[in-house]
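Structure tokens please, single chain.
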Amino acid sequence: METIHNPIIKGMAPDPSIIRVDDDYYIATSTFHWNPAIQIFHSTDLANWTLCSYALTNREVNLRGTNTPAGIWAPHLSYDKKSGTFWLAYSHMQNMAGREFNADSFAVWAKDINGPWSKPIYLTSIGFDPALFHDQDGKHYASILEWETRIGHQAPGHIVIAEVDLENGGITGNWHRVTTGFTTRGCAEAPQIYRHQDYYYLLIAAGGTGYAHGVEIGRSKQIFGPYEPNPTGEPIITSSPRHLFSLGDPDAGHFEMYNPHSLMQKAGHGSLVHTHTDEWYVAHLMSRPLPHTKLNPLGRETALQKMEWTSDGWLQMADGSNLAKMTTPGLTGSTEISKKSSADDFVETFNNEKYDSRFMTPYQEQSATWVNTTDNPGKLRIYGNNSFFSQVNPSIMATRATSLDYTTQTSLTFYPDHYSEYAGLGLYYDSNNWLFARLCQSDSGEKTVLRLLQAKLGERIDDSFNEITIPNNYVELQINYHLGMAQVMYRLTETDAWQQLNTIDVSYLSDEGVNGEPGEIGGFTGLFNFIGAIDAHQHDSFADFDYYKVKNNNGGVFNG
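Here you go.
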């Protein structure tokens, strides 16, 4: 039996929902303010996963103006065996101000995991994190967190279940409040229903999506309860097994629950799968902080733990503990499945009309009107649009950072004719937090130069003291990211030696480093690498990129 190494999906891949159909496994993950929305990954061995598609690709959702970390939350993937149909439920979190957390939840369906997916079917606006359960009698149920706004009531609210009408939308009958959590960690959310032998099992996330995160379980012989909690009174999976009483805390970072003895942090929000080898696993989110910090640039990634059923019908980790591990036993009879670090490397030379599907764009959709390989074949042409502070139309083509030690690189040609036109390579968290090595006009307008532009907690920082003249409007750029530091390099021809422009501390480009309140996590998305262009002049300038590469290095144990 081989070993599965966590994370199984590196970089921004949180809230994993896992299913099996025959011998194929699929995981759907959250995408927040990024398009295309809802990543779907595929595997045949549970260890090696590839992005196979996205679910929302036809403007089913408008993410312009989305504040971090709202957008598309916690997609739940299911398969109705009776009809041979894939179902995907998700929430569109539209507002988090005033802790109102206004979200609309929908479901889409498809006969093939790669689509086409149906138009969204409205489910509810009662809360967020919906999941669908297809019972043996043909009935369908939705479970979700009912968001609590009343003073003096336990936040964030109740887990509720209702029969759902998947043909016409909405629910049938009433919502049934079944629990506010199965432990004292509080912050119960992301409920998912499973049937095993004589019981319905309710798997929920708890403790907030920070360092106290965990997976909890309860069971009932009736789908609407009452649900009895796991008799241990603790999560069945967590990175921090120490007991915590946090009832009423709606969702704090719980930095005091950081476990200094674990490389994996924040393990929680899990989903269960029964394998074709008659084994059980839970896919769950996790994080890998920068060394000696509580900053997580890669956001929340996907991990896997092998599980087992006890003699009295409770689910637990196969090793008998509840501490999430960086490795877990693979499928029985599996051969060599150890994932190579090169699997997450990225090389795109833009020689085909379709570019790599792993490219994502914040807020706006990818469209041939602003990004394509046809206007100049063999290159990716990006037309400049809004400033990167914009949450409307930033011209950004980005990929998830998947390591804490890597190099990203590109070359481009760009002819700016106004001081508001830029193009280049950078690191991006959201509209208030990014680093951009860009070609632009000098302040006098007499030449093209290379300069760094930075957004830090919403502040614009233009590094005018480190400016390099670019005589032929062509440059090759490289960013060496190592444990929160970004070394920005350049060269004017492929035969030149690399020169350093500057080195910047970018550790703030992390979930905890961006615009958070004290004790709270500012975001829970993740760091991206990107190429892009800005034109706040006439929206008519463009840059031609020759290639885009990301090489992950083996920079120590923190790469997993």
